[in-house]
Amino acid sequence: MIIATIRDVAKRAGVSVATVSAVVNNSKPVSEPLRQRVQEAIEALGYRQNLLARALYTKRTMTLAFLVPSIENPFFAEVLRAVEETAHANNYSVFVGSTNGDRAKVEFYRDRLIALGVDGVLTVLSWDVVSSDLIPALQAYEIPVVGVAGSRTLPNIDCFVSDDFGAGEQAARYLLGLGHRQIAFIGSKDSQTTVLRYEGVKSALSKSDIEPDPSLLITVDGYEEADGSRAVSELIVQNSEFTAVVAFNDVMALGALSAFEDQGFSVPERLSVISFDDTISGYTRPRLTTVVCPKHDLGAKGVAKLLARIEGDDSPPQIHKLPTRILARESTRSPWVAHYV
Amino acid sequence: MIIATIRDVAKRAGVSVATVSAVVNNSKPVSEPLRQRVQEAIEALGYRQNLLARALYTKRTMTLAFLVPSIENPFFAEVLRAVEETAHANNYSVFVGSTNGDRAKVEFYRDRLIALGVDGVLTVLSWDVVSSDLIPALQAYEIPVVGVAGSRTLPNIDCFVSDDFGAGEQAARYLLGLGHRQIAFIGSKDSQTTVLRYEGVKSALSKSDIEPDPSLLITVDGYEEADGSRAVSELIVQNSEFTAVVAFNDVMALGALSAFEDQGFSVPERLSVISFDDTISGYTRPRLTTVVCPKHDLGAKGVAKLLARIEGDDSPPQIHKLPTRILARESTRSPWVAHYV
DNA sequence: CTGAAAGCGCTTACAG
DNA sequence: CTGAAAGCGCTTACAG
After folding, report:
1. C1' nearest to CA of B30: which nucleotide?
2. Is residue B91 a contact partner of residue A86, using CB atoms and an 8 Å limit?
3. Over the stretch A127-151, which tens digit does the pLDDT of each residue have?
């Protein structure tokens, strides 16, 4: 098949290419008769605009890129979904790049995205990204960048993160509302998010005039299921009283649930467990009450801001902390009846 | 910042743009002194090749697209991961498009991907895609297409699917090996995959001289957790004997697990349960034994074939059924001790 | 080995 | 309202 160009259309319609361009892009007034003839020629030839050739002149490709540390992570997959949706709704297409903590890959995307002329990039501010020169390089080419998800932020670009401190407060307030007073926290060492969420918990406790008990904070290496189980073991040997535990994420909470069951503490009868993220929390037994991150909003608002920047928005960059919400399920309950002593 | 073009580099190095092009693409021999000067000019100017301008002439953008019905589905997320990995390893970038069963979106991507000049597209053969003219349109522009995942295939393009019939056989053989004879199947109505997997189960049964009992096949609408529970209820009222159940997917199996527990049938002590896909099967209690789909291979091999097509491979299109494998966990056990009567 | 020139498919001042 | 022309940043015959 021979691919029709704007010139072919012009010839068939008996007009100039400028006129064809004007009707295709609706960029200038064109008289009805000519418009008609052009349209017919387009149909007849099956003409399609070549966006690449167009971009050469306009510097706009109508493409965006989204960079994540790992695509298959359900959290990012959900953000990606919102990114694609929002981009599509605004007539943009999106490249996905997974960086996997690999600086070389970050550099590959840095070079490639510039070479491909993307109009903007949304990126998770993972360490590999932040420690490379991706962002300044993009900015040197006047390609807007916005950061998203993760708790890390950067001062010189717009960032959309979930409010981890607020999430911690929310979790604790929920438990407090149920009547819990002795609330443990299990988290991951070296995780900024753990810190923030725990600070939120402490804040809520303080507001209820409860002195946070340091022996009720357990942090372990890693943030997988086994790490959650391990944290629970450590918690139990502390021998402090508690009626509820806040787990850093769903997966650790799953491990915690198993550990409690193994030790004969039934959830939620004797102990309440609450987690964060809402990834697998609907699949555990009991189903976990969790603090839901605004994954969809993160992607949607991130893209919206990116598009605004592309359109010329030059207001100062801001950090946007999006609110979380409690999704109550089966793992939490009032401690009135019985509790662990 | 002023963006350096090939002309700027040529000027600074005192050579022609043809020479710069030759060294950048390593497409022609260039004398060492000139190469040197060009390299220096490139460094000094921070020159980067504009792939769009290049593509205008070469018709190659080094981009691929991957179309899925839903990005956030963990199954496709995993395929996407392999797609991105393989593309990157071969110096390609990838657009992701989610079609969501929406024909209009399929058409958007059809037009856009052509306009953007992608070199090839990998697509899940969901109904929206197959019922649109996406594939013929792409082919008219000589853009190679390969189909992936899902059980649907098309005769005129390369397809990579997991071997559902084989997966069913595998599941049944595994149960048979454990000593089970009365094996139930719960699946989804109107699912071609259900049919294939069940056929595989029957085949394995027949090979062991076991007559498949039709009352042990339950199909329901939908394929979510609640549907799995419902299927189990229906199965129980059949009042037929069985010691194991094969569930169409992990999520239905989760529902089945709950239903069995509610009815007082403990898994795996009284009943074995096996599922397919390995999405959430590691998170259930007991952890589900499952038949793992070659999600990563699907993506990796699909892209590899696509690249071969781009490079000119014109062998006849083929359907590739990739083998599955059993991942044994806690939900299956020999029925010798006790079983449901 | 090197370069001048044409051309890839568009858009947009500019002139009419 | 319409069109001729220049130019976006590259590559590749072609000639030397």
Report:
1. C1
2. no
3. 999 999 999 999 999 999 999 987 7
